[in-house]
Amino acid sequence: MVKVDLSGASMFFQNMGPDYAEVAAAHRTLAEGSGLGAEFTGWLELPQNIKSGELKQILALAKRVRARSQALVVVGIGGSYLGARAAVDLLRPTRGTDDPDIIFVGNGLSPDSMMDTLSRLGDKDFDLCVISKSGTTLEPALAFRMFKGLLVSKYGAAEAKKRITVVTDANRGVLHDMAVREGWETFVVPDNVGGRFSVLSAVGLVPIAVAGIDVQTVIDCAIDEFRALDLRSPENPAWQYAGARQHLYHNGRSIEILASYEPSFRFFAEWWKQLYGESEGKNGIGIFPASVEFTADLHSMGQFVQDGPRTLFESVVSFEQDLHQFEVPFDMGDPDGLNYLASRQLGDVCRTAMAAVKQAHIDGGVPNIGISVPRRDEAGFASLVCFFELACALSGYVSGVNPFDQPGVEAYKKNMFRMLGKPGAQ
Ligand code: PA5
């Protein structure tokens, strides 16, 4: 289970600290399905449902794709993209020789980026997986049209048909209708799961499985983690995190920076930003979610964190055991003066840096919440996903918003479609 360490935050708490009675009420509301957006809380049962449902089909597809293709082009944006990218980057920062290249497209509109992607794809054999709950989001829809064309011109219509997989709504939408018409293999985005909570459905699991990540372990660990996180007590790490961040917010901390010392965590932080930003930033309130990569960003953002406006707190995600060991070599004559570190493990140097940064930031007035899992592996990924999802729902309910809608996302789309001249958008 995830561990939360509030020892670096408690000195900033006021009066009695986090109000766990509020968090308990939020947890009750969520479990009873009596809160705002309760029709979108199906993510709590996703691991169990996928295990008895689509998991076999996902594994079979992954096997076929891995056998015939050197790349999987994954089309999607926002909640239909970030979870898979988070997992692939965190768990497969370097590809194994048998692993296809997972190429994410349709998450922007830059023609230059499209060209870069086409060069990366080159003449590799590839499969195409398009993920869109609505089926109408412009960025992925355009990318799908382009890569579908490429697939057909490379393989011909019949073979292309076998190489297209669609993850979309079970019953409606343009993509759903096209898939039915063309006979493409399809997976479902459940009705009761919003995009940013969908990583443990086919939305995340199809690309994750093709990347060579053990999705059965991810799902089994997620089932255990959600069960453990059902604990109704201040010992529950999700209660501690949700309670602490709401308490800090109400005491002037309106910005949260999620930090990690693992560069491969970068896209997990992007997933987290969407999860918390879209869930909590509404009705004129919300904690602004930002992220940093340490130690690199200590050399760029460190000054601001240490010494800027005292409106932030930091949550630091760490992995207790390193997957690899590197010893600092001894250098005769000590030309660079680093022999005092000779024979120390790089991981120990990193942990010492972490402790030093934590103390410096606390001294500078930045509350520090520690979040850790044993290893950067399938179990660690599953634990972090379940933990952050549950804490997000609890935190949203404590703050009084509907954590499962995103009405603000529509505003730009209306303008854009009108300005592009979409029929009916005038
Ligand atoms: O969380 C959300 O709802 C959004 O980020 C969506 O996932 C994103 O806009 C993509 O939508 P769709 O899957 O309908 O293409």
List the topology elements.
Elements: E1 3-8, H1 20-32, H2 46-51, H3 55-68, E2 71-75, H4 82-91, E3 101-105, H5 111-121, E4 126-131, H6 138-155, H7 157-162, E5 164-168, H8 174-182, E6 185-188, H9 202-210, H10 215-228, H11 237-249, E7 255-260, H12 266-280, E8 288-293, H13 302-307, E9 312-319, H14 346-363, E10 368-373, H15 378-399, H16 410-420
Parallel strand pairs: 2-3, 2-4, 4-5, 5-6, 7-8, 7-9, 9-10
Antiparallel strand pairs: 1-10
Describe this structure in words.
The chain has 426 residues and is an alpha/beta fold. The protein has helices at 20-32, 46-51, 55-68, 82-91, 111-121, 138-155, 157-162, 174-182, 202-210, 215-228, 237-249, 266-280, 302-307, 346-363, 378-399, 410-420; strands spanning 3-8, 71-75, 101-105, 126-131, 164-168, 185-188, 255-260, 288-293, 312-319, 368-373. The strands form two sheets. A five-stranded mixed sheet has the order 1-10-9-7-8, sandwiched between helices. Helix 1 (20-32) crosses helix 11 (237-249) and helix 3 (55-68) runs parallel beside helix 9 (202-210). Bound molecules: 5-phosphoarabinonic acid. 5-phosphoarabinonic acid binds next to loops.
Shape: globular
Give the strand order, joined by hyphens, for the main sheet.
1-10-9-7-8
| Gyration radius from CA atoms, angstroms | 23 Å
Order of helices and strands: EHHHEHEHEHHEHEHHHEHEHEHEHH
Number of strands: 10
In helices, the fraction of residues equals: 40-55%
Round the mean pLDDT to the nearest integer and report it.
Answer: 97
Quaternary structure? single chain
Instruction: State the distance separating the first and last CA atoms.
Output: 51 Å
Count of helices?
16
